[in-house]
Every structure is written in structure tokens, then in C-alpha cells.
């Protein structure tokens, strides 16, 4: 009796472990706070329900067959050792999966285009530009229109879309705010674009979703979705910082560091984002001459582009257009 109870307890351990793991999970993907996250949640659930159309009957039939065709005198199943084919069964076991695959294919095709991260969100308002740089092991956020930058802290107004320009100054990484949606890669010398909206005021976790070395576990940030007034106050708070993100500040940020506290920079060198990308690219990719590219790699684009007949605005716009074309 004791041995039987022990065997039963051991069999129950995996189930108990699974329940404990599920109870400890924070299912943020199923608690979205933006339209992109809502659409992705709907896509996950729809795909799951379609697959359960096959999974649930298979589980049921496995148990039912084991009972009906058990080796016992009480079994009423017909014994047909030479049975080999049934057209009805073939239609069911091939037809239903084919219909499910067709439905999933159509759903995937439509949702892939509807949720294109580079496409602006309809009725999202005028987008706020944020340049995102993955570093060892921290996230740099540059607000070019506001002239400020932050490390490991992001802010955005509620119900207004943000256009993220995402790159890396180190190994490939992945930018992800689970409750807002759309994980997307950050790669050196390349730019990915992402549009997101936060539809509810709050603070949400942002993470690195791709292993990138020793400090990966602490490479996270807070994404604050706030009212327009609070966002303006947050910008003014950042502008009040005495820190300047220039060449020296950027060199300090490039040094590997772990578990970095949020930091504000009240001033940012113009075209710093393009300067960060430049060492990984050549002049043809950025649409610049060799001389302009050399100046940019040295950190002198702001001053020298005008000397070469190109204003700062034209230079950054030209580079942005070239990068968008490359995508």
C-alpha cells in the first residue's frame, strides 16, 4: 500500500511542478496595454484555438480507443485483423488538418501585413521620434526633437504613437516591451523601425529578448506611458540634467556595464544616432561622400557637413532616407 502511494505521489510531481510554474508566471502578453499588443494577443489565441480543434479530439480518441479496444472479454469492439482502409477516416484525418493549415496560412498572411512594425498606426496621431541604441548592457534612448537622451528609461504620451528607430552599437539584441507588443531586433549598422502606442497610463517592463553576454539578465528598462502634461514635465526634468551626451559621454557609455540605473542627459550632440551607426557602414549605404563619411566617423558631422555643402538637416535626412531604402 505504501509503495503504491509513493508511486502515485511521484507521478504527481511533474503535474505539481507545472502548476507551480504557471502560478509564478506573469502572463504580460495576455494583459496588453496598447492596440498592437491587443492584436497580437488575439492572433495568439486564435491560432491556439484552431490548433486545439485537432489536439482535443486526438486526446479524447486516444483515451477512448485504449478503453474500447482493451484486451478483455467485456470488450464489445469488433475484431477485424485484416482491416486496412477507410475512405471516411482518410477524409477526416487529412481534410481537417488541411483546412486548419489553410486558415492559419490566411490568418498569418493578413496579420503579418496588418502588424508590420514599420507601418504607421492608423489614428495614432503625429508620431514622436525615439532613437534606440542597444549597448553593453543598457538601452540608450535619444529624443532628437526634444534634444534629450536617457539610459534605461523610456517615456511616451498615452494614446499617441511613437516611432522607434532601433540599432545596436554591439552584438545583435532584441527590443521588447511585452505589454505594448512587437519584439524587434537591434543590429549594428542597420536600422529597424517600430511603431507602438500605449493606451493606458502606467509603467511597463521593457527587456532585452536576445542573449547578449554577461550583463544580459539586467538589461531591462521601464517604459512610462503618461498623460501629455506628465510627458512634458518628464522632458523638462530630463532637460534639467547637467549631463551632456557628447563624444566623451558616448565613449563612457560604450564601456560595458551591468545593472545600470536610469540616467538623464539634458543635451545631446546633433546626429549622434547616425554617428553611432557610421562605423558599421560605408558612405554608399548612408548616401554620403567619402569625406563626409570620414568626418561622421570622427564625430564631426555636425560641423563639417555644412562645409561640404550639406546642412545638418539635409545630412541626417539623406542618411535616414538611405537607411529606409535599404530596409
Automatic annotation (TrEMBL):
Q: Where is this region: Disordered?
A: 296-327
Q: Specify the domain of life of the species encoding this protein.
A: Bacteria
Record's SUPFAM superfamilies? Cupredoxins (SSF49503), Cytochrome c oxidase subunit II-like, transmembrane region (SSF81464)
Q: Which InterPro entries match?
A: CcO_II, CcO_II-like_C, COX_ARM, Cupredoxin, CuRO_UO_II, Cyt_c_oxidase_su2_TM_dom, Cyt_c_oxidase_su2_TM_sf, Cyt_o_ubiquinol_oxidase_su2
Per UniProt, residues of the Cytochrome oxidase subunit II transmembrane region profile domain are 21-119
Q: Where in the cell is it found?
A: Cell membrane
The entry's keywords: Cell membrane, Electron transport, Lipoprotein, Membrane, Oxidoreductase, Palmitate, Respiratory chain, Signal, Transmembrane, Transmembrane helix, Transport
Which intervals hold domain Cytochrome oxidase subunit II copper A binding?
125-237
Q: What is its main location?
A: membrane
What residue intervals traverse the membrane? 43-67, 91-109
Listed CDD domains:
CuRO_UO_II (cd04212)
Report the membrane topology from the UniProt record. Answer: Multi-pass membrane protein
Comp. bias regions, Basic and acidic residues: 301-317
UniProt lists the family membership as follows: Belongs to the cytochrome c oxidase subunit 2 family.
| NCBIfam families found in the cross-reference section | CyoA
Put simply, this protein is called Ubiquinol oxidase subunit 2
Q: Give the originating organism.
A: Cobetia amphilecti
Which gene does this sequence derive from?
cyoA
